[in-house]
Amino acid sequence: MRRRASSFRSVAVLMLLPITGLIVFLGYRFFRDYRVPAAAPTTQTVDASVLPPVKPKTSAPPKTPQKRAGEIVLILDDIGFSHQPIADAMRIDPNLNFAVIPNGAHATDYARELHERGFEVLCHLPMEPIGYPRMSPGPNAVLTSMSDAEVARTTRENVGSVPYAVGVNNHMGSRATSDRRVMASVLSALPKGMYFIDSKTVGTSVAGSLAKEMNIRTASRNVFLDDEQTEIAVRKQLAELAEEAETKGVAVGIGHPYPVTVRVLNEEVPKLRTRGFRLLRASAVVE
Predict the structure, then answer these.
(1) What is the rounded CA–CA span in Å between residue 119 and residue 195?
(2) Which residues contact 282 (CB under 8 A, 6 or more apart)?
(3) Is the peptide bond before 56 cis (omega within 30 degrees of 0)?
(4) What tens digit of pLDDT does each residue of 76-114 get?
(5) Among 105, 170, 161, 162, which Cα is nearest to 143's?
(6) How far apart are CA 159 and CA 125, in angstroms?
(7) Which residues of the chain have pLDDT under 50?
């Protein structure tokens, strides 16, 4: 009886061995094929703010800001007489400066109109030139023969004759601007805050340097546009002015309300703006 029981256990063990092996094998296959990888994505919400920005595949190249070529101050002198093309001149640029001569027949009317249209107005102060009296700057000019008090009074009268003037530049004046005593009296007579532009009608002028010594805001002319009144000459001088502005950063040009000058400026100033030049009021550059 004991022998039969031992035989039964042996058979049972032998039968269980393949079954156990099958279970182990199936378990191994299950865990191998269906386990979750360690790097598998989860359903956790990701903060988009920490993700790098996505660049569009066909993004346009960034625009390069236009380089400023230089700044130009344009002054038209001798404003105040009949038949001047003032309306055409006002179309050149809003920052064009007009120097109104006090002894002009229409000085007061033009100064008021220009101011109302938003333009900067200067008093174009008549001053003694070399060659006076053969060369005349007109009535009530500042002369080197005057006393200091007479120079100051004449200066104040002229400035007061041009309403809304915020600055002064000299009309002629090659002799007077070379005289330190005369210029000291002129500059001392200017209303507080008024600037002086040296038209540089002569290389020996002391007007600009003396104004700096006296802490009066000032600048000096770089180029005359229309000593020769032809289109070719005016365009050439305007090109020289642009070159000065490009080299120095800012340049002052002076012209006159001649039809040829106004015509050329109306044609060329828009081209200068396209090239990166900017026109400024005289008050923006004096220092």
Answers:
(1) 16
(2) 73, 75, 97, 120, 122, 167, 195, 197, 219, 252
(3) no
(4) 999 999 999 999 999 999 999 999 999 999 999 999 999
(5) 170
(6) 7
(7) 1-5, 8, 11-13, 31, 34-51, 54
- Closest listed residue to residue 113, CA positions, set 128, 123, 100, 131: 100
Q: Indicate the DSSP class of residue 142.
A: B
> What region does 164 belong to: left with phi over 0, alpha with psi -120 to 50, or beta?
left
Neighbours of 142 (CB within 10 A): 29
**Listed residue (76, 141, 137) closest to 111, CA to CA:** 76
Q: Which two tokens stand for residue 104?
A: 């002009």
Backbone angles phi, psi at 207, to 5 degrees: -60, -50
**Integer distance in angstroms from the first to the last C-alpha of the chain?**
131
Q: What is the largest CA-CA distance in the chain?
A: 162
* Amino acid (one-letter) located at 13: V
| Interatomic CA distance for residues 129 and 140, integer angstroms | 13
Q: Which two tokens stand for residue 64?
A: 């390069």
Determine the pLDDT at residue 42.
Answer: 44
List domains and CATH numbers for the chain: 71-284 (3.20.20.370)
Q: Which two tokens mark 109?
A: 């009317």
Residue matched to tokens 């039809």: 259
Show the CA angle centred on residue 251, arms to residues 230 and 255, nearest 5°.
30
